[in-house]
Design the sequence.
């Protein structure tokens, strides 16, 4: 097992990249993924290569490796050819590494050039038979404006994260959030100064957003229970213009009355009202 060292871009890499004929750069694309904490931050297309930039951050120590036959494929035609990974700059393929907790690392993966007619791609590891989960990032749209991001991604980026960060721990200082959209499931971890974090698994079903699981904070603190203070937001939710329209359906969805909801239920209800208001 190797300990991951600080990643620095070698000057040779910079020279190699800048001498390529520039084609296209996509920043922070939306995608579906099962690799929580891992984010595609950039895709660069050149005449002779494709560079995929990945960033990782986790509240726990994480062990990982890049599969030597990881590949890019055409989302719009899965029968098209696969582009197998060439290398990971400053690291090795098929080698296990360890990332310390609460530490961000960035990686650059090199692939063959993406054909010009490919506008949406998938980044995948091959199916595993050895007990580990094969990662994927699918429906990565290349060179698309931010307005063309996944609707649920735009919602969390501009509204959902801000609400959840304040509702979960209103007296703590928000630090950052990482989230993964795995089709109808969103895994989201919110980090606060002082070592607190809250991890939520949110299900999107029939237009509703409901919490199905959460982690506790790192520090033992009865008053730090996530969404403890969200009871105060019940009245705010009931004053929403679309409250009466969706109240009965939501109560039926949860199987309980609004007055019987706990903090998680209330936060889920308010988040759904916000989501329906943006849909």
Sequence:
């Amino acid at each position: 097992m190797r300990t991951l060292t600080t990643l620095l871009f070698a000057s040779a890499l910079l020279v190699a990249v800048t001498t390529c004929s520039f084609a296209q750069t996509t920043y922070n694309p939306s995608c579906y993924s099962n690799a929580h904490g891992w984010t595609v931050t950039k895709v660069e297309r050149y005449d002779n290569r494709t560079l995929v930039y990945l960033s990782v951050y986790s509240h726990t120590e994480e062990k990982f490796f890049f599969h030597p036959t990881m590949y890019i494929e055409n989302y719009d035609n899965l029968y098209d050819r696969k582009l197998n990974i060439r290398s990971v700059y400053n690291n090795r393929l098929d080698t296990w590494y360890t990332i310390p907790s609460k530490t961000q690392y960035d990686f650059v993966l090199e692939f063959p050039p993406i054909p010009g007619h490919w506008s949406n791609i998938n980044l995948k590891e091959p199916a595993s038979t050895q007990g580990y989960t094969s990662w994927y990032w699918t429906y990565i749209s290349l060179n698309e404006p931010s307005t063309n991001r996944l609707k649920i991604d735009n919602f969390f980026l501009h509204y959902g994260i801000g609400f959840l960060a304040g509702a979960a721990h209103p007296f703590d200082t928000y630090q950052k959030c990482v989230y993964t959209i795995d089709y109808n499931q969103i895994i989201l971890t919110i980090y606060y100064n002082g070592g607190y974090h809250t991890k939520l698994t949110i299900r999107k079903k029939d237009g509703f957003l409901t919490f199905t699981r959460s982690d506790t904070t790192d520090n033992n603190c009865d008053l730090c229970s996530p969404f403890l203070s969200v009871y105060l937001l019940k009245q705010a939710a009931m004053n929403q213009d679309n409250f009466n329209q969706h109240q009965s359906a939501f109560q039926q969805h949860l199987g309980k009355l609004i007055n019987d909801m706990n903090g998680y239920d209330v936060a889920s209800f308010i988040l759904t009202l916000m989501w329906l208001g943006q849909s």
Observations:
- Helices lie at 11-18, 151-168, 234-238, 243-254, 263-278.
- The radius of gyration is 21 Å.
- The mean pLDDT is 80.
